[in-house]
């Protein structure tokens, strides 16, 4: 029997993007380099030597892209603001030309009946702030709050939903721990310091946004919470899962929602940082300022074991090898949840999404958004130019079913944002991996909706999976 998955009235049907991945125009309108400009131009850091210099030229083609969103029936669009486009050095006044681009983009969205959700930080720290120390330096959190105020003052009359940070775990631990993301540093102590200052920046930005925005504005953060599962019930595997949960999840959720860093996390990492010096009086109160929505970015579960119990098991490293992005848990072994994987090598398991949403509902009691979910596959372009991607359609269908199941279980999920609207610059993978429901020909930049886009449009129209 076919189960009908129907979504509540007012459910936000969206797609998501990030500024550096799609905008291009990296020297126009007063924009200066971000850490991703510097990183992508450093030989050996990005596959194929690719950069975001042009990306998919959304800066010049945003009206076409909004028209495509409208044709698909999207009711919401989650995008990020480029910090160096708005405040090029990370200090001082805003550049009006940079703000004008976002004013025009938001106006275009509103004219097409699409609700804009703005993310302040999707990893593009102004290079000048990185040169001054980056996120491991406390001052960066205060600069972020200043930038938040500038953005809110300029766009608050148009944008009513704001997200402070996207995936701070990646910013801290892939950027400063393993070094596979910009700025490419590999110091576990700096990664932990970056995590705290990202938390502090979030709290300070919430305060700045509350001061600048109407009382009706809704504030959020988007976390890539790891759906951590022990490989077995062996005590050593349970301990491995605890350690990954501490530095993968609770390092953010603890201070943001409970006003504390858990004692086990502090003990796991005490050999790396002096927490009593890193965390100043008043920091935790600042970080735990109330927000209105909590975003979850989900792609796959995280299955772990102790190294001792992994000797005869296939290993999995989803972060490129090299230095560990898991300070205090460097010897934990990672495993595939199953062998049904995407082009990224990530296992497909929608139960992790429903489990995470229900766990978040129980612990935090906040309205939830799925702010990213999607998959890369080896898309096939037919001789007639059409793009058939049945694997992506199946992936999204199964994950939307998981969202519906979480809603049926009591989770207050308000929307789903498919990653991604467009094929784009996929960070260290360059242009090798395609996540979009709209195909982009990187030579001509022509856009072609894939069959998954047409399917998604039909789901939006009906409000149900059938």
TrEMBL record:
<keyword id="KW-0326">Glycosidase</keyword>
<dbReference type="InterPro" id="IPR017853">
    <property type="entry name" value="GH"/>
</dbReference>
<dbReference type="GO" id="GO:0030245">
    <property type="term" value="P:cellulose catabolic process"/>
</dbReference>
<feature type="binding site">
    <location>
        <position position="419"/>
    </location>
    <ligand>
        <name>substrate</name>
    </ligand>
</feature>
<feature type="binding site">
    <location>
        <begin position="426"/>
        <end position="427"/>
    </location>
    <ligand>
        <name>substrate</name>
    </ligand>
</feature>
<dbReference type="GO" id="GO:0008422">
    <property type="term" value="F:beta-glucosidase activity"/>
</dbReference>
<dbReference type="InterPro" id="IPR017736">
    <property type="entry name" value="Glyco_hydro_1_beta-glucosidase"/>
</dbReference>
<comment type="similarity">
    <text>Belongs to the glycosyl hydrolase 1 family.</text>
</comment>
<protein>
    <recommendedName>
        <fullName>Beta-glucosidase</fullName>
        <ecNumber>3.2.1.21</ecNumber>
    </recommendedName>
</protein>
<keyword id="KW-0136">Cellulose degradation</keyword>
<dbReference type="InterPro" id="IPR001360">
    <property type="entry name" value="Glyco_hydro_1"/>
</dbReference>
<feature type="active site" description="Nucleophile">
    <location>
        <position position="372"/>
    </location>
</feature>
<dbReference type="InterPro" id="IPR018120">
    <property type="entry name" value="Glyco_hydro_1_AS"/>
</dbReference>
<feature type="active site" description="Proton donor">
    <location>
        <position position="167"/>
    </location>
</feature>
<dbReference type="Pfam" id="PF00232">
    <property type="entry name" value="Glyco_hydro_1"/>
</dbReference>
<feature type="binding site">
    <location>
        <position position="21"/>
    </location>
    <ligand>
        <name>substrate</name>
    </ligand>
</feature>
<dbReference type="InterPro" id="IPR033132">
    <property type="entry name" value="GH_1_N_CS"/>
</dbReference>
<feature type="binding site">
    <location>
        <position position="299"/>
    </location>
    <ligand>
        <name>substrate</name>
    </ligand>
</feature>
<keyword id="KW-0624">Polysaccharide degradation</keyword>
<keyword id="KW-0378">Hydrolase</keyword>
<feature type="binding site">
    <location>
        <position position="166"/>
    </location>
    <ligand>
        <name>substrate</name>
    </ligand>
</feature>
<keyword id="KW-0119">Carbohydrate metabolism</keyword>
<feature type="binding site">
    <location>
        <position position="122"/>
    </location>
    <ligand>
        <name>substrate</name>
    </ligand>
</feature>
<dbReference type="GO" id="GO:0005829">
    <property type="term" value="C:cytosol"/>
</dbReference>
């Amino acid at each position: 029997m076919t189960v009908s998955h129907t979504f509540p009235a007012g459910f936000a049907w969206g797609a998501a993007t990030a500024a550096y991945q799609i905008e291009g125009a990296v020297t126009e309108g007063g924009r200066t380099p971000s850490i991703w400009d510097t990183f992508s131009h450093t030989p050996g850091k990005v596959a194929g030597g690719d950069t975001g210099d042009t990306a998919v030229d959304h800066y010049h083609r945003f009206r076409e892209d909004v028209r495509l969103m409208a044709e698909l029936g999207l009711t919401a669009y989650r995008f990020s603001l480029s910090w160096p486009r708005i405040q090029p050095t990370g200090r001082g006044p805003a550049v009006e030309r940079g703000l004008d681009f976002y004013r025009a983009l938001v106006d275009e969205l509103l004219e097409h009946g699409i609700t804009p959700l703005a993310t302040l930080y999707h990893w593009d720290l102004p290079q000048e702030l990185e040169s001054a120390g980056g996120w491991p330096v406390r001052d960066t959190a205060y600069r972020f709050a200043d930038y938040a105020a500038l953005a809110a003052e300029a766009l608050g009359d148009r944008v009513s939903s704001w997200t402070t940070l996207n995936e701070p775990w990646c910013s801290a631990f892939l950027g400063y721990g393993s070094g596979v993301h910009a700025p490419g540093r590999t110091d576990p102590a700096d990664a932990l310091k970056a995590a705290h200052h990202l938390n502090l920046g979030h709290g300070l930005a919430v305060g700045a946004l509350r001061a600048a925005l109407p009382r009706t504005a809704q504030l959020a953060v988007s976390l890539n919470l790891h759906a951590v599962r022990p490989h077995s019930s062996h005590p050593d595997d349970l301990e491995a899962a605890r350690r990954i949960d501490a530095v993968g999840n609770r390092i953010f959720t603890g201070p943001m929602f409970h006003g504390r860093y858990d004692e086990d996390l502090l003990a796991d990492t005490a050999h790396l940082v002096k927490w009593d010096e890193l965390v100043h009086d008043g920091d935790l109160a600042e970080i735990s300022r109330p927000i209105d929505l909590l975003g979850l970015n989900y792609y796959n579960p995280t299955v772990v074991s102790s190294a001792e119990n992994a000797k005869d098991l296939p290993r999995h490293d989803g972060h490129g090898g090299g230095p560990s992005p898991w300070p205090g848990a460097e010897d934990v072994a990672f495993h595939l949840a199953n062998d049904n994987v995407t082009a990224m090598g990530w296992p497909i398991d929608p139960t992790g999404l429903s489990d995470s949403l229900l766990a978040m509902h129980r612990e935090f009691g906040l309205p939830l958004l799925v702010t990213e979910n999607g998959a890369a596959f080896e898309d096939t372009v037919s001789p007639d130019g059409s793009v058939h991607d049945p694997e992506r359609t199946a992936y999204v269908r199964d994950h939307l079913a998981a969202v519906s199941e979480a809603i049926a279980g009591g989770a207050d999920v308000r929307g789903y944002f498919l990653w991604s609207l467009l094929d784009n610059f996929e960070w260290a993978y360059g242009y090798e991996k395609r996540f979009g429901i709209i195909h982009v020909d990187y030579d001509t930049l022509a856009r072609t909706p894939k069959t998954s886009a047409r399917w998604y449009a039909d789901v939006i129209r009906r409000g149900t999976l059938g």
